[in-house]
Design a protein that fits this description.
single chain, 142 residues, mainly alpha
Amino acid sequence: MTVRLWPSVCLAAFAAATPASAHDDLWRVGVDNATWRAECSACHMPFPPAMLPAEDWQVIMRALDHHFGADASLDEKPRREIAAFLDRNGGREMFADSADELPRITATRWFTRKHQGAIRMWRKGQVNSLSNCPACHHGQNS
């Protein structure tokens, strides 16, 4: 009987001992960045870097003067710091594919697949914004 349990015990011990990567839990930011958190949260929640690939974040960072209808321009030093942080911590390609002019988390296939109920509610006017993650994900990265 002990022999049969051994693989399960080993697997459970391995899983407990193996640290999860930042990409395994999108909400967890492996290494925080105070400039990113302060600047982005001045207008909205600081979206976790893993929710878009680094390339998409770079597109967004180059277009801060027309950031989804607002001028979110930054001085060069904080812009470079945030861009480097997003480049190091951006997500995997599974999040790429936003067809909008600027990449949008809410337009990726991953988001639309995971949030079908919220999208239906948004289309009916029952949800104000798909980008208001804390409305449903209470206590997440806010």
